[in-house]
Amino acid sequence: MTAPLSKSPIRALVWGENVHEQKNATVREIYPNGMHSCIADALNTQDGIVAETAVLQDPEHGLSADRLAKTDVLLWWGHAAHGDVSDEVAQRVVEAVWSGMGMIFLHSAHFAKPFKMLMGAACNLTWREAGERERLWVTSKNHPIAAGLGDYFELENEEMYGEPFGVPEPLETVFISWFQGGEVFRSGLTYKRGAGNIFYFRPGHETYPTYHDANVQRVISNGVTWAFNPAARVANPTDAPNIPVETALEPIQERGPRLHSDGEEGFR
Amino acid sequence: MTAPLSKSPIRALVWGENVHEQKNATVREIYPNGMHSCIADALNTQDGIVAETAVLQDPEHGLSADRLAKTDVLLWWGHAAHGDVSDEVAQRVVEAVWSGMGMIFLHSAHFAKPFKMLMGAACNLTWREAGERERLWVTSKNHPIAAGLGDYFELENEEMYGEPFGVPEPLETVFISWFQGGEVFRSGLTYKRGAGNIFYFRPGHETYPTYHDANVQRVISNGVTWAFNPAARVANPTDAPNIPVETALEPIQERGPRLHSDGEEGFR
Amino acid sequence: MTAPLSKSPIRALVWGENVHEQKNATVREIYPNGMHSCIADALNTQDGIVAETAVLQDPEHGLSADRLAKTDVLLWWGHAAHGDVSDEVAQRVVEAVWSGMGMIFLHSAHFAKPFKMLMGAACNLTWREAGERERLWVTSKNHPIAAGLGDYFELENEEMYGEPFGVPEPLETVFISWFQGGEVFRSGLTYKRGAGNIFYFRPGHETYPTYHDANVQRVISNGVTWAFNPAARVANPTDAPNIPVETALEPIQERGPRLHSDGEEGFR
Amino acid sequence: MTAPLSKSPIRALVWGENVHEQKNATVREIYPNGMHSCIADALNTQDGIVAETAVLQDPEHGLSADRLAKTDVLLWWGHAAHGDVSDEVAQRVVEAVWSGMGMIFLHSAHFAKPFKMLMGAACNLTWREAGERERLWVTSKNHPIAAGLGDYFELENEEMYGEPFGVPEPLETVFISWFQGGEVFRSGLTYKRGAGNIFYFRPGHETYPTYHDANVQRVISNGVTWAFNPAARVANPTDAPNIPVETALEPIQERGPRLHSDGEEGFR
Prior knowledge:
The structure is a homotetramer.
Chain A: E1 10-16, H1 20-23, H2 25-30, H3 35-44, E2 49-55, H4 65-69, E3 73-77, H5 87-99, E4 102-106, H6 113-119, E5 126-138, E6 152-162, E7 172-179, E8 184-193, E9 196-201, H7 214-227
Parallel strand pairs in A: 1-2, 1-3, 3-4, 4-9
Antiparallel strand pairs in A: 5-6, 5-7, 7-8, 8-9
């Protein structure tokens, strides 16, 4: 049966550290309204996505519990001020992912608190700031995150990130970068944590106009669509409920000694 | 060419919370020297493994930097006192894994600090303490962790853990449990974080004699052998070195604006 | 920006072996128009999906190159006559998957030619036909294939399939079954081959009314939506093009001896 | 407990197509005794490995059932004559892998019959024969296959293979190559099929002295050690046994209609 689909747009929230845009003339010139605004503006040209922004300097970094509850996909760019993000907000973001919020980590967000917490790994790499050529190859044919791209695309000036990249094996490797100076890097990686889809996307050093690039914008908007989980958020993503014997799905008799009484909370 | 192999034994360290063994008569009767000692004793019957123990109540929980450096595979059992493990020691254990130490998490250690930190996930599940039958099926044929087992083995009395288990997709699923009361659980899962191999193994509720079971002992000693990484430990598992332009493997010219000066530390 | 979405429906094709429906009174009574028709009818009640059917007895088994080109997701049920499927058609189906066609294999299709060819594995299991209870647990929280389900659902009468299931590690394990007779089985598994998404779904023995079950129908329609890849089909999914030196993306000089002349086909 | 280990050496078998060594003067000069002999000779310098060779031109291509049963790890190099390998021998090799034989596919063996059959994918790629520089980066820190290597190694003259490489997502990505002409390639990938471990390793074009390179030799011998599964071979790797109701592990009553009689073979 065919029927017209009418869906609410995906609610994206672009979080920016917003530090170098304030302090560095080069960055400010490229991104006069901040990198987050550039990214959000590009998302807002896409049908089916509405994007807002939040910054480190906002109360609660713009990431109140209420706002996260209304966010379908959170995008994160940070670099100089990872340590200024409060542990409480970082934990809140992580739990929102577990409950089903999609999340995209951009470039230097490989060292952002929520990324390290979600990966359980060092997330380290090698790097060089030389404005060299980067060529991103698609390694997962027709992956939705690569929709509309050819087999590769290029960025004439980018910072180099090199392997080994200290992350867990991904669900899928979507992009691998070639760098002019001789390195390679897994530049597009997907993960799932709880009910939340996660995409790491490498490019985006702040002294280059990367987020004005049409291919980069396309990958990011594809990523938002991919990461969106339409299911209702999991209400209590850390719950570990006790199942009393008398409600077991198959009839069983309690046997042997116990530590806990019925319906008691487990230890954490 | 054939030659006799002579290898140093794998140095295992069995960490036990050692709380219920002190407080609960049932547990003390089953494990008069503690669960950790029972596990270590079984490991010490195996050629090629030497096992010691450490407990929560030791200084630094028995997990000084020096001792972790001399540990090839750490085994962890905890339940009632996860919160009493210091954050500093938990982080030290996690970094030892990243540097190449193998690690086995047993039963209720699914909520141990180092496990949650390494998984980046809620690690939650459902549970019932009814002494019901558990049957563990091998799902990865001839996996080294299942060496010497048939297609399944049984534990007549165990606590139930039920899906959904809030962990990332594993590298491999080695065991899946059937429970008498109607649930299933992924009871043997492998992961890699940094250079370290991780194995989660479900059975081991403290009021049952699980760690006296020959099949359970076999899986644990197989797990130690599997998790052991013979490579030298990574010295600085969180390093993210700058690669100066002039040492690039392919000759490149620096182009465009920069944030960092040569050899500078990156932001974290 | 918000805009109404109008999409073409997903074109599903349900392939049935259609043997037992003709020969066995029990099966015919449950599925008077064939299992394939029951499955297709259920899909046709869903917005956004249009389903047709094809059977073994059709010319080219109903799977001409032209028809596969117009199929977004192919569903496959077979059991008694796997060997009657021509190798040519099986290969054609496999290449359609590589080019981006989604595919769902149902129940005894674990031994269908295209499934074995796509898995590269024996795809074997243990089995028992006793009409026992099966309970399918969701293991990947909020996975789109499990949309609308609770943590589990039950089928009161099903054939048992038991581990070890001889398939490669999946991208994701979505369901694990509990069986009354004591076995477990990974009942929902996802894979990607080339540009094609693949979902294996266990239930569906022909002597039980499984495909009339609302939860089973829901999983299958979720599976169709999940497996659909909206990208244009890859034109030549087995191509291995030579890249001549003079069109290399970075200027290089040819060095050393060669086997091939420019633009020559590689060996296969 | 410590005890001296004494183990039988791993029995490796290096299979070579042995065509270009006979027909092409350049190849013959580099590998006067064939590429297979060069690889086997290097393996025979390693403690704990004994290597033999077999070639396409041998009866049954040197791969009789008896010989495969005595092979722990099979290495495969082929290029010009993939089509000359008999389907029967290819299937025999595949089933040996399912039963637990380790297997390493080298370079152009990405199009060998057993590799395509084990992957279930097109296994295609782009290529260029220009003697360009290849740099292989280790992406899985301290992986046993990379033992003894630094973060990368180089081959000054190699054929280029480029992404997208048409293979399933691997268990682990161990190496990624950088090519001088601008491409990247996942050059070291691990898989498991049935009880057998599989490693694909990219380098080895026949007109270059790649298999004389010390790093390449080290990776190959590491790969043999990694791929070796010490468990006894699975006797019947394609068996799908019926479990009669009366031998069910939990007592159940047969219910509902059946297709099969007790102990009957299932359909294939």
